[in-house]
Amino acid sequence: MFVGDSLNRNQWESMVCLVQSVVPSARKSLSKTGSLSIFTIQDYNATVEFYWAPFLVESNSDDPNMHSILNRIIMPESIDKHGNNWKNVDYLIFNTYIWWMNTFSMKILRGSFDEGATEYDEIDRPTAYKRVLATWSQWVDKNIDPNRTQVFFMSMSPLHIKSLDWENSDGIKCAKETSPILNTSMPLNVGTDKRLFVIAANVTRSINVPVYFLNITTLSEYRKDAHTSVHTIRQGKMLMPEQQADPATYADCIHWCLPGLPDTWNEFLYSRIISRS
Asked: Is the pLDDT of residue 277 over 70?
């Protein structure tokens, strides 16, 4: 089971694509119920699942279909409502990052969504991130049997919004980029919040249950060419030609093409799974 935001969904889609080709069409199925999407492989009694929880904890963005909310609010100590859906699987792959990057501070709800609370406090992004991962780590320690379940945490998946970051003054975001950043001697900064990277790396090392921190960040930062760009979906539909002609507005430089970079992430994940087996 993959748990997290649309980048983890991107990786789940990659995993489904990688395994489904060897399964007869009549022996596989895909279903979606609320936050949970399940790809079933009948002959192996196996599923590859994705659970939508962009902040891992409860938030006002937890609706898997209607979550385009600018005023995002989280409950950093509330995880059980989601976590009850993550138990008794063989491999749990978590992530949370991109939804943290809209604002410099995070809104923390005073009280509970269930009780109709609307007031919130604002704290800086790293402090909120650390609180959420502390809640997550406590959930893992309390609920995961390491003899049954292997746990992974994916590091930050970067975005490529500003072409000046790779010294392309004529570029428009990631549009029409056809090769990776090849100048490895150039200081590379595409806007990744490395503070969150450090927090995640440290938290995963401090949990009693073994958690493997899968570092995909640096290799992905070089792949300015690997995004869906204007060949993407917006509000459930492929971009129209006039939208594709306006990459400054419509280019998706967050998500990744398939086949593509998420396949590499899954090769790393698979290598780690079989090496631990």
From this structure: no
DSSP alpha helices (H): ranges in the chain?
6-20, 80-83, 125-143, 194-206, 217-221, 241-244, 247-250, 261-276
252 belongs to the catalytic site? yes
Is residue 133 packed enough to be buried (19+ CB in 10 Å), middle (13-18) or exposed (0-12)?
buried
Q: What is the dihedral of CA 196, 199, 202, 206, to 10 degrees?
A: -130
Is residue 194's pLDDT more than 70?
yes
Catalytic residue among 5, 62, 255, 275: 255
* 227 is a catalytic site residue: no
Does domain 2-159+191-225+262-276 bear CATH number 3.40.50? Answer: yes
In the chain, where are the structural domains located? 2-159+191-225+262-276
pTM of the model: 0.95
Known catalytic residue: 68?
no
CA distance 240 to 244: 6
